[in-house]
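Residues pack. Consider this:
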Amino acid sequence: MAVLVTPLQRRTAATAPRPRHRIEALDGLRLVAALMVVGYHFIAYDRGAVPPWGSAADRVFPWLYLPASYGWLGVQLFFVISGFVICLSAWDRTPGEFLRSRVIRLYPAYWVAALLTFAVLSLWPLVREPVGARALLVNLTMLQVPMGARSVDAVYWTLWVEARFYLLFALLVWRGLSVRTATLFGYGWLVAAALAGQMGVPALNVLIMPEHAPYFVAGIALYLVHRCGGHAALWALAGAAFLMAQHQVTEQLRHVARDVLGRPLPVLPALIVVAAIFAVMAIAATGRLSRVRGRWLTVAGALTYPLYLLHEYIGWTLIAALHPFLPRYAVLATVVAVVTVAAWLLHRYAERPAARLLRRHLTRPLPR
């Protein structure tokens, strides 16, 4: 009996053994995403209980305020990179190995950053009051959002988004990760995301994440392009994710402008930034950034996660303490430098040793 083999399956079989390798350009893109978010929080955001600069952000940085107001889109870039990297790192792993690698990657730096941020806010509550002791303990689980506890730092909301993505992807790994199953997973997730918003079921929205799904799916699709070439089904998946992302970012921009910044923002720059995110990731997927290399990129990629975790509330505290005494650009440069050095120290002396310890213990088999 003849067996029909589709072009996508033939290409999958031909390229499945391709080894996992680091794409250094993605480390540079991680740094870009982190700096976008840092710029947004330090230059554009002023709606806290106590504005860190003591006055409206558009008065402090009249020229930088508008472009920095779109820095929150760095999170969307993070999500596309995450979809790409998670698909890469999960290949040929069991669900247990995959989830264990995520715990080792996320928790050590997170624990140290949460405790450090709590300590800084407890000693100098200049812009935010620290959470209570019980909320701090809940934060250490990284489940404070579903448990209704206040986060030690507001940027931690993205970790709950990532955690849900990992759980969904673990189901795919359990089912059997291949180009075909990952492609079907991507199409299915986009369809579910399109329908979830119309069904009025909050629990379904929590799982499906319609506002974030296009970015993760785009990353998955572009990794598959990178792995086995530009099959039409994969480019179509990335294109569908792009079109959905353009719709979602319009809705997200309205929320940011109305509820977060409290000022109107033009939609077109956000659409352009999202298009640029998809374009540069597509270029990276096709290997055209393979010449972008360097030790500094690897270091930058390692620092982006601790920098993201540390920068907001600690940075605001430093800004509030320094701005009465120094020019605003000197304060901005000083605070960015301080949180970057703190991120390196956290990575070098806390995250790496703790990750090694955690890896050693988590890889031990359970007793029978």
In short: The CA atoms of residues 221 and 234 lie 6 Å apart. DSSP finds 16 helices and no strands in the chain.
